[in-house]
Write a structure and sequence with these properties.
heterodimer, A: alpha/beta, Rossmann fold, four-stranded mixed β-sheet, 5 helices, 12 strands, globular, B: alpha/beta, six-stranded parallel β-sheet, 23 helices, 10 strands, elongated
Chain lengths: ~210, ~500
């Protein structure tokens, strides 16, 4: 098979090109991994950076999550919503009058395109960059449901917020080793492709609301 | 034959004139120059602010350099490790020695899916191999979904910047392109289209949505592949990347063999360096990490094409190989005074600016005048070295490559100057020959009465040409060796 010939030839070229590099060469990386970034307040920094991206955020107590989610959906003008089948009970309250679609994996992209909003949880978030990380596990749904609808309400628990990317990467390593897909979300979708002026909202959800549970 | 996608007007990059001939056209384009000045100033200010927010930014750059060096200096092992991890996770791995082989693999995969169109994530490597035209020739329409790439594609244009391929276009030009072209290739632009960037982005959203929803096959590049887990990392802003990575049944990713990082933990360094250096943001809106195939989520068939296409030639050069550390942030373009004035097209290279000037001639070799001109497309001011997140010594490599260009030229076409300097080099390499020549020049100098003069008088042609802008010292009264012997004997020289 020509594929394995190409493989062998490329690997042989690589080895030839590295003829000057001693066998077992290990470049030392002067870096201590998974360290926290010192911040005056992790939650305040997280909130500031979420707002800086043009997204919105509400801080609520655990009992108020359902009401805050419904209020956010109404505030975004959503008339319909999709949720993962295992979204914690109580995260959507006071929404009885409007359609809620529960995703069990059979909705097509076109079905999702006809739904206004999505509600998901999240795994870990980094404050210093305002980044929310989903591993599409419990309460987060498959990737398509948090992508195609135009409005995303994302529930973030205070204890899942870490200072910065290094700590978040350390948490996510277990998910990746299980083969889970991971998505980082830092604000709504945006582009700077026209004269480098930032425009919020292209293909991903154009509105992001974070419900921070403290 | 009717085109499936808009035809690029400019020739493929190698058909373009070398930089010194192409640069005046870029310089003379006042609109482009104004667009570039505005855009590069904006972005380099943002980069500086975001870099200064990180207290140990320079340590982070050093770690980024070391991680990339570690990957490159053990590249064969990491490639094998990555291949194994990807294969175990359900990805089919292909290897391509050059552009033609990569294009053939992709075309065959798309045909096997019986798809007549594909959606694409912005990817430098697929520009490098001109994949879109290979697909077009095979009857497959390749749709660019990044906003700037869409502007370039609909504008029958070529990219001029690594990160913002349409940086040479302003909002009014974009509006005109959308009005004229969108309707010919899909959903037309709204009748009331203005040149407000938000309105233009909305038009792109509507135009592309139908393509996202129906596509069966997507094609991506890749920012990183993690050797230990086989994870493909895609960094983007608009969500077009997530659409391509999530909705189609099949995902084909073409990735240069140098894009490896050893461990997942290394991403904490690379993913802090990249967005701050490229778009000047703390973090780009979306980053996707895909490891193999996940049942019930995203494409159920995945292929990764690992591409050489000259990268092993770069790796063979002990000085030049540092260019392979590049993570395509484009910070070097945005600070470059040459790039800012002439624009990206003049480089005749998919990779323009300072990184292009060192990467392209190494990837493609020095056989074409376009590539021989590139190491000279710089003032060597060194601003690029200071912003590079992986500390590539760009100006050192430029100088190194200038030397190789001169060697390449004189090896094929010797000039009187190169012959003379070859003789000088041979003389100075041997103590005995140097002694003889010094003695000879002293004798000739005395015979001609030149000794003691400060400069040589006018010499006849062709030496007169060479000396028009140079001063040559007259032969000395005494050679250094004689002076030294005299001094050792205790005589006053």
């Amino acid at each position: 098979m020509s594929g394995s010939r190409a493989r062998d030839e490329i690997l042989a070229r690589v080895r030839r090109s590295l003829g000057d590099v001693p066998a077992g060469d290990e470049v030392v990386v002067d870096w201590t991994y998974a360290q926290p970034t010192p911040l005056h307040s992790v939650l305040d920094t997280f909130e500031e950076n979420i707002l800086d991206y043009g997204a919105s955020l509400s801080r609520v107590s655990p009992d108020d999550v359902g009401r805050a989610v419904a209020a956010a959906l109404r505030g975004m003008g959503a008339g319909s919503v999709v949720i993962p089948a295992d979204l914690p009970a109580g995260w959507l309250q006071g929404w009885d009058d409007l359609p809620v679609v529960v995703d069990s994996g059979d909705l097509s992209a076109r079905d999702l395109d006809a739904i206004d909003a999505v509600v998901t949880g999240s795994l870990v978030s980094g404050a210093e960059t305002g980044t929310i990380c989903l591993d599409h596990g419990a309460g987060q749904g498959r990737r398509a449901i948090s992508l195609v609808p135009d409005r995303h309400v994302c529930v973030v628990t205070a204890r899942s917020v870490v200072s910065d990317i290094p700590e978040a990467v350390a948490v996510l390593e277990a998910s990746v080793r299980q083969g889970r897909p991971v998505t980082w979300i830092s604000g709504g979708s945006a582009t700077s492709d026209i004269e480098l002026s930032r425009v919020e909202g292209v293909h991903g959800p154009r509105q992001l609301h974070v419900v921070l549970v403290v | 034959m009717t085109r499936l996608t808009p035809a690029p007007d400019l020739p493929a990059f190698l058909g373009m004139p070398p930089f010194p001939e192409a640069a005046p056209a870029g310089l003379a384009n006042a609109t482009q120059r104004a667009n570039l000045t505005h855009a590069t100033r904006t972005i380099r200010t943002k980069r500086a602010v975001r870099a200064s927010e990180v207290s140990n930014w320079d340590d982070l750059r050093t770690a980024g350099m070391q991680i990339r060096n570690r990957a490159l200096r053990n590249l064969d092992q990491y490639l094998v490790q990555a291949e194994q991890a990807m294969t175990e996770a359900g990805v089919t791995v292909h290897w391509a020695r050059d552009a033609d082989e990569a294009n053939r693999i992709v075309v065959d995969l798309v045909r096997a899916k019986q798809a007549d169109e594909v959606i694409k994530i912005k990817s430098m490597v697929t520009q490098e191999i001109d994949l879109n035209e290979a697909l077009e020739a095979a009857g497959v329409a390749a749709w660019e979904t990044d906003l700037a790439e869409l502007i370039v594609q609909l504008g029958h244009d070529r990219p001029s910047h690594i990160l913002v391929p349409a940086i040479h276009r302003n909002r009014t030009e974009v509006r005109d392109i959308f009005r004229a072209e969108m309707g010919q290739w899909g959903r037309p632009a709204p009748d009331d289209l203005t040149d407000d960037p938000a309105v233009l982005a909305e038009a792109a959203r509507l135009h592309l949505r139908e393509k996202f929803l129906r596509a069966k096959v997507a094609i991506s590049g890749g920012n990183f592949i993690v050797a230990e887990t086989g994870t493909l990392v895609i960094v983007e802003s608009e969500g077009n990347g997530r659409m391509c990575l999530t909705l189609p049944e099949t995902l084909i990713s073409v990735v240069g063999i140098e894009k490896i990082v050893p461990t997942f933990a290394d991403l904490e360094v690379m993913l802090r360096l990249l967005p701050r250096s490229s778009t000047g943001e703390r973090m780009n809106p979306y980053t996707s990490f895909i490891t193999g195939v996940t049942s019930g989520d995203g494409p159920q068939e995945r292929h990764v094409v690992l591409l050489d296409n000259g990268r092993t030639n770069v790796l063979a050069d002990e000085v030049g190989r540092a260019a392979l550390r590049c993570i395509r942030c484009s910070a070097c373009l945005n600070v470059c005074p040459v790039y800012e004035r002439v624009g990206g097209h003049a480089y005749g290279s998919v990779y323009p600016g300072p990184i292009g000037a060192i990467l392209t001639p190494q990837l493609r070799g020095l056989d074409s005048p376009v590539d021989r001109a590139l190491p000279f497309a710089s003032s060597l001011c060194g601003a690029c070295n200071d912003v590079c997140p992986v500390r590539i010594p760009i100006s050192d490599i430029l100088v190194h490559l200038r030397g190789k260009v001169v060697e390449h030229k004189t090896a094929t076409h010797p000039t009187p100057e190169s012959i003379a300097f070859a003789a000088v080099a041979s003389t100075m390499a041997s103590s005995r020959r140097l002694g003889l020549v010094q003695r000879g020049s002293e004798l000739v100098g005395r015979a001609l009465g030149l000794v003691g003069r400060r400069r040589l008088p006018r010499l006849p042609w062709p030496a007169s040409l060479w000396l028009r802008d140079r001063d040559l010292a007259a032969p000395a009264k005494q050679t250094f060796r004689d002076w030294w012997r005299q001094r050792e004997r205790g005589e006053r020289p």
